[in-house]
Design a protein that fits this description.
By secondary structure, the chain is α+β, with helices and mostly antiparallel strands. 39% of the residues lie in helices and 13% in strands. It has one domain. A four-stranded antiparallel beta sheet has the order 1-2-3-4, covered by helices on one side.
Length: 123
């Protein structure tokens, strides 16, 4: 199953998650008596929410001026870890909770004099 995301690194992670679902046996899928289509819909929803959260957190890092290589996210104990290419600040993302943590979220990148700022719509 290939899920489309805006970055190759995101796509690779989401594909790993989808593959883990495919590794379940029929017995494991049917064990709780829930309709398989309902389970599939729920799984799809969870994966889509994780992608949306992932993308919003990466946009947040970018807005702070941090540069994260999307292909350098590494899985460690159920979380994905990366570092800002400019200042080395850490960032981690827990797929199960959608929570992002790390020094990079604490403020603007000290090595980037020109952080990207989105212009708010004028009224």
């Amino acid at each position: 199953m290939a899920l489309k995301t805006s970055h190759d690194g995101h796509q690779r992670i989401m594909n790993r998650l989808a593959d883990s679902v495919f590794e379940l046996s029929d017995e494991e899928i049917l064990a709780d008596g829930v309709d398989p289509q309902e389970k599939a819909d729920r799984t799809s929803s969870v994966l889509r929410k994780a992608v949306d959260k992932w993308e919003s957190e990466n946009a947040r890092l970018s807005n702070l001026g941090h540069t994260i290589n999307p292909n350098k996210w590494r899985s460690v104990d159920g979380s994905y870890h990366n570092h800002c290419l400019n200042c080395g600040s850490s960032a981690s993302f827990a797929m199960a909770t959608g929570e992002m943590q790390g020094d990079a979220l604490g403020g603007s990148c000290p090595e980037n004099a020109y952080p990207i700022k989105r212009r708010e719509a004028s009224r």
